[in-house]
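Subject: for your reference before the review

Hello V.,

The reviewers asked for a structural picture of the protein, and I figured it would be easier to keep everything in one thread rather than splitting it across files. Below is the amino acid sequence we used in the manuscript, unchanged from the supplementary table.
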Amino acid sequence: MLPLIERVARVTAIIGGMVLTALVILTCVSVLGRGLNTLGHSELLIGAAPGLAEWLIATGVAPITGDFELVEAGIAFAIFAFLPICQLYGGHATVDVFTALLSTRKNRVIRSFWEVVLSAIILLITWRLYVGMMDKMAYGETTFLLQFPVWWSYAASLVAAVIASVVAIYCAAARVLNLLTGRQYLPQSEGAGH
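And here is what came back from the structure prediction:
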């Protein structure tokens, strides 16, 4: 079961990374367009090189319309897309000042407890994301500039959240089984301890 969970988590993270990369490129192009458009309309360039200013404006260079709407939707998806791999490898930040002094058994109890709590929270978020998506569909809400239905971004995030929920349930079960049997059911994790 672990190889399948790990593969799904990795693919989801790769897709999230591709979306995030596209958003970075989109933002850079939009900022560059905004800057060049501002330069073309600046009194300095119009006064110094009116032909260049006119040419720059004539090219149609401008910020990408609705860039912030796309970034908002894409970032929401990317966050949920990275959650499964982070959950599987225990990449969430932990502060182990107190727990470093405890026995291995007590640390397993604590990790199992928090894994179950985190899994419950991820399931709650997934459920509420579904409810929110259904509301957006029912009301037909669209974005301001691009006019695409808001539920599309909810749906994309929901797919990643469902995968995160499945991984979270697996991780919670694996931690509890580790507590009970002492066997390892999760990949070796680095964690982000502080």
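For the response letter, the relevant points are probably these. Residues 2-193 form one domain. The first strand starts at residue 93 and ends at 94.

Happy to draft the paragraph if you're swamped.

O.
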